[in-house]
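Methods — Computational structure assignment.
A single polypeptide chain was analysed. Its primary sequence is given first, followed by the predicted tertiary structure written as structure tokens.
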Amino acid sequence: MFARLSKEKNMFRHVQLDNLFVTEYMPYAPESYVKVYIAGLSMAFSEESTLDGLATMLGLDKATIMEAYAYWAEQGIINVLSSEPPVVEYLEVKPLSSQVKKYSKAKYESFNNQLHAMLPSRTILPSEYNEYYSVMEIFHIDLGAMLAIIQYCVRLKGESIGYPYILAVAKNLASQGITTEERVNEKLSELALYEKELTAILKALGSKKSPDHNDSQLYVKWTKTLGFTPEVVIHVAKELKKGGMERLDGKLTKYYENHVFSISEIEEYNANRDRQYALTKEINRILGIYIEQLDYTIETYITKWQAFGFSDDTLVLIAKYCYAHEMRSLSVMDETVKRFYKQGLLSESSINSFMNEAVSIDGEIRALLTLAGVTRNVTTWDRDFYHTWTYSWKMPEAVIQYAATLAVGKGNAMAYINSILASWHERNVKTVDEAKKHSVAQPKEKQSTVTQKSAEELNSLFAHLNPEDI
């Protein structure tokens, strides 16, 4: 067995990564070392785990794997019990702050002296010294690099600066692979160049605080990673006026995700967003629904409908159509919009024509109900029936009207008409005279030949139906 669990780790019945490993160890370790730790942990439950098997799984050579384990052993979260054959024991992961370690006074004597010279008015306790030593060793930061970081932080915050802030900056740089004095100086010099721009941004946000390291990091993200110009960043900051750098970061990230970069693009995007909010509220009002947070609706429906080519006025018209036909939800309206799009009905005029035709059809259905002795409003169910008779079965209007006269006095007139027309459709009846010749038995309202079919026959029937014809 190549890897195994200590008694503490063996309490778990499945692979479980400690939160401490994820938050305190993983961010600063080489990627391949992290893979080795996790993959080896998963193999620790198998009696047949081997170094060769781990190497094959990760595509790494055995020397690299053992280097990784040497690294984790130095961090105190594994033990390498033997090298021939290699046996690795996974230990309980403990907070870095609890890893008590003695440091060589001779090794850090020069560092201590230079630190004291930087902070002559400060009393530096042994615990603070140990924190610096620990971070330098865990994250492999050079002594000169750490001194440069401390000097940079003191310049930003003054001698009263707390060491947790300094250590946070050091860890942040280490996570970017910046651990040598030369690279730290290069990075900090780059960040110092942005002080003027950052001061202007903070002023635009209405903040009187001085720029710090976090602000500089955000500025690098906005200008180098996201690609915004300093002028655009300041313009957006002036629009916000409050909320600080975090809100500005969220706003710029949103613009980036929507491929909006210039001031003119941002102004157009914001104007369009305002229109989208107004449109969404109007559609919700027409449908009779209330949604407090509109962003999800805009992203899920409005933006998509507009991308189809529908204008705001057309979407309002469709919403009114949906309300009138008792389709009063955004999801149902979405299906309606898709159907209009599929039929090429994108403009107000084409949809108005469709709606006028629908009104005309409703009139024809209402006339049928009158012939059947029924007085009520037309329903979606009625429209579905009528569509089947005229579009799918292509029954002549006169034949449909004659069937309606036969439904007088029936409990469910439309269902009764449908039964008669279905029988005639099977016999290919196309005229009233042919209909009269067929002595149609009065369908029993509580009985249907469908009930005689088996489940298998019904499944076969529905499998061959065209959804467009239903």
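Note: The radius of gyration is 37 Å.
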